[in-house]
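pls ignore typos typing on phone
zinc ion + seq
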Amino acid sequence: MSQQPETGVRNIAIFDTSLRDGEQAPGFSMNTAQKLKLAHALTKLKVDVMEVGFAAASPGDAEAIHTIASEIGYLHDAPMLCSLSRATEGDIDAAERALGPARRSRLHLFFGTSDLHLAAKHKMEKPEALKTIERALKMARGRFTEIEFSAEDALRTEPAFLKEVLECAAAAGADVLNVPDTVGYTSPEEIYALFADLTANVARPDHVIFSTHNHDDLGMAVANSLAAVRGGAGQVECTINGIGERAGNCALEEVVMALNTRPDHYAATTGVETREIFAVSRLLGETTGNAPPRNKAIVGRNAFAHEAGIHQHGVLADRRTYEIMKPEDIGLPSNALVLGKHSGKHALRARLEALGHELGANRFEQLYADFKRLADTKREVTDNDLCDLVAEDGRGH
Ligand code: KIV
Ligand code: ZN
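k done
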């Protein structure tokens, strides 16, 4: 969260909400044992904050939070554990009970602040909303290590009122001011300008930071989060594989690797242990039965796989021709050269040699022709297929 003056590179806190906003989406709910397993994996990933549920939502959610707080929350290197809460006494009490065993706890209190949310959900005018937020934060003060306040639907909230709400929340005890794009409505330019304005102009105690929380309804959650970081956000809220309500949340692996890959551009980094990314992504996919799509950035099966001959040739000569990250940096042992109809001789020869087949020039040309014929009939030519081809070729088919 702090600025590092020697390098000018800011450290951005990573707030993982896979076990709350992610789990809230249809098809992704998890039981206590599953959440606990993922919480261990997220601890190894070294996220800064782990939102593990919404204590007042159900007895099962409260139990999962309490179990994680008991089993992980006492560890010296545990992330800060967090529960969501509405601005009500009952919710705050439920969060306090559930997070009780954790050494460091955060209450995440939210309140819809756009005109739409005020009218449709809260049936309140602005002055009453401000009083409700202030009252709830004062009620929570001193009962958690930290308090985060979210102005739900902030990107559709009238800007002057948003500032008033955030100043009121900071004065009432919020340590983190979250400005969520609840419905994935904003654009990188707009959110950059908003964060630049808020971080410059909202009156608050020095330690208070701004947080960004973006949904992917228009496919811009990661771009918007990165723009908010450039505008001054000190925390990004995100989920593994980008799971979450509707089209999902900002994907943790994408935002973290973007910051890692382009420090020149963002002048920001995170404390995430990126070599754990692939393992956590896979665990989440297996646990929920929803593996990320094959072409998903960073963790999809194709993210470090090459089939086209020209690309394979380039990668064999120098992987940087077609890879901007190292697969080992996300915990993959290596990239993959997939053999198919687009592959060329360089990749075929390299694969054959790896399988122990050193062929002379004529035999190789014959095998290459057979390989192309086979590749036209299937999506991927496997190692077994290659060994069969070599054997058939050797028998002079
Ligand atoms: O999307 C949202 O606004 C939320 C809040 C509860 C932070 O998830
Ligand atoms: Zn959300």
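The pocket of zinc ion (ligand 2) is lined by residues 21, 180, 182, 213, 215, 245, 249 (CB under 6 Å). The two ends are 66 Å apart (CA to CA). more later
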